[in-house]
Design goal:
Chain A has one domain (62-271): MetI-like fold (Orthogonal Bundle). Chain A has 11 helices and no strands. Chain A has helices spanning 6-36, 53-60, 64-95, 101-109, 116-130, 137-160, 166-173, 178-207, 210-216, 222-231, 236-271. Chain B is globular. The chains are: A mainly alpha, B mainly alpha.
Chain lengths: 272, 268
């Protein structure tokens, strides 16, 4: 490719070093917490005294189960809602030419540029003061879906950009109804993208504190429990909670990664 | 989307012109909230501190992200996707859990200071609930966005252009500032905004990592909806925050020159 001279080699090595430092910076705290969740002496854990006590304490915590269930409900609800919106938006935007394309794109992505705390308080105000609704899981799902849709939209658009819409036309020419075309041609081809969008929405909402908190009031979720615990000084149960959630999320990301790879593969084969 | 995103924001604007008395909102048009915000010294200090913090965090992220994104895009080869996903994976584990983890490293009794004490040295004061600590926390939280934005831009960048620049006698530094940076400025600008906006509104990180002087605008904003129940004032603060974000986005957008950034208009 390029003739590699010593100066460039040095620069690349320097950059690689920076990348490694970044990974250390990003992952050391996460893995350190996992380590702490298994040891008795959390302040200075050398040498470690291993224990599972924190996990047992966590499981017996009052509202832990309810928080977990609520977080899952919010995550799945937001995931479904935002995937639905994002898929419709992405297909509409990519399939049909429109001179509003740029404007619509900006509109769908706008929630990315608004701070979470603002989305949280504004939907709280809207629900309570205007609609007169109390905070509940549904309003939290809807509020989370505003920005989760933007993320899901990004993921889906990035992949659908490579989809050949002429396939749909072919199906239509051969007499398929629009619904049948979508079910039998479009969907099988784009499902990895949709799946990716769902997972992104799910993870974001599952972990969200600022938006959920303002919409839920006293209803616990895992992040609000974590927040409450953190406020009253760190308790080792929090390490256990963080480790479980982190492990769970990394697992999802690994699955997602392979799905993405599969998704790309599928779309690539079709390109030929 | 229109209903659940735009309408709540508009409601916030409306309420910011009302007032709250003993936890109820009174429909009484006035601009007192804004007068308070713009004349009371404390609010301006908080706002200024937030803007300063957000600028610093954005700059640090920017400077650190560029070589990393460049390296992944240029030398990543077939591992590009894994490398870049590894930088953004921590983002998905949630703010609160990441702050918890950070406290264990950089907090007053985090591993670094405990190690120093155990070795008989003085603990580092900067880690004891300071603006430095919360700044570092914010970089930790939001740098993935910056890397991702620059990386995505660099993916579409033709590195052969640099060879052309070199053949024509440009030094590497000159080639970077005259070719690479301008051609990838949109991605960089998006990254800047994506880091600046959430940092400006940060309320959790400074609360747990910042010190007595560490409270930022986001903290007192959150406070209005929690303890004091002064929603109208809080709404006004939200509006102020929103406008500062918009101004920042506008300023960044002004620097984008579509013709120079290789924008063809058609793609996406």
């Amino acid at each position: 490719m390029n003739a590699v001279n010593p100066g460039r080699k040095l620069a690349l090595a320097g950059q690689a070093l920076l990348l490694i430092l970044l990974y250390l910076f990003l992952y050391f705290p996460i893995f350190y917490i996992m380590y702490l969740s298994f040891v008795e002496n959390t302040v200075w854990p050398f040498p470690p005294e291993y224990t599972l006590e924190h996990y047992i304490n966590l499981l017996t915590l009052d509202n832990f189960h309810q928080g977990l269930v609520n977080s899952l409900i919010i995550g799945i609800g937001t995931g479904l809602l935002s995937t639905l919106f994002a898929t419709m938006a992405a297909i509409g935007l990519l399939k049909y030419q429109s001179r509003w394309r740029g404007l619509l794109m900006i509109f769908y992505l706008a929630p990315l540029f608004v701070a979470h705390i603002l989305i949280g308080i504004s939907s709280l105000i809207f629900n309570k003061a205007i609609l007169g609704l109390p905070g509940n899981l549904l309003s939290a799902i809807i509020a989370n879906a505003t920005y989760a849709t933007a993320f899901a939209f990004l993921v889906i658009v990035a992949q659908l950009a490579r989809y050949d819409w002429r396939l749909d036309d072919v199906a239509m020419v051969f007499g398929a109804t629009p619904a049948k075309t979508f079910r039998e041609v479009t969907l099988p081809n784009i499902w990895p993208a949709i799946f990716g969008g769902f997972f992104v929405g799910f993870i974001l909402a599952f972990n969200n504190l600022e938006i959920s908190f303002y919409n839920l009031g006293a209803i616990p979720t895992l992040p609000t429990i974590a927040w409450g615990t953190l406020r009253h000084g760190i308790k080792p149960e929090l390490y256990a909670l963080a480790s479980i959630v982190n492990a769970f999320i990394f697992l999802i990301l690994i699955i997602l990664y392979f799905l993405l790879k599969m998704g790309f593969l599928k779309l690539d084969i079709k390109d030929r | 989307m229109l209903f659940f995103f735009v309408l709540p924001l508009l409601t916030t604007v409306v309420i910011s012109f009302w007032r709250t008395e003993s936890y109820t909102i009174i429909h009484d048009w006035n601009i007192d909230n804004y007068v308070v915000l713009l004349t009371k010294h404390t609010y301006l200090v908080f706002l200024g501190r937030s803007i300063l913090m957000a600028t610093a965090v954005t700059l640090i992220s920017l400077i650190y992200s560029w070589p990393i994104a460049y390296f992944i895009a240029y030398a990543g080869g077939r591992y590009k996707l894994v490398l870049v996903l590894l930088t953004s994976a921590p983002f998905f584990t949630g703010i609160i859990l990441r702050v918890t983890a950070l406290q264990q490293i950089f907090g007053p009794i985090g591993i670094i200071n405990t190690a120093l004490i155990n070795l008989g040295l003085k603990p580092i004061n900067a880690f004891m609930y300071s603006n430095f600590a919360s700044g570092m926390g914010l970089v930790y939280l939001w740098i993935p966005f910056m890397i991702l934005a620059i990386y995505l831009s660099l993916l579409n960048f033709n590195f052969d252009l640099l060879e052309v620049a070199k053949v024509n006698g440009a030094s590497p530094i000159k080639a970077f500032f005259e070719v690479t940076l301008p051609l990838n400025w949109i991605g960089t600008a998006v990254g800047i905004v994506l880091v600046f906006v959430p940092t400006l509104a940060a309320s959790i990180t400074p609360r747990f990592l910042g010190g007595v002087n560490g409270a930022l605008f986001g903290n007192i904003l959150a406070h209005q909806f929690g303890a004091t129940g002064t929603w109208a004032l809080g709404s006004a603060m939200g509006v102020v925050l929103f406008f500062v974000s918009i101004i920042a986005i506008f300023l960044v957008w002004k620097t984008v020159d579509l013709r120079r950034s290789g924008f063809t208009g058609g793609d996406i």
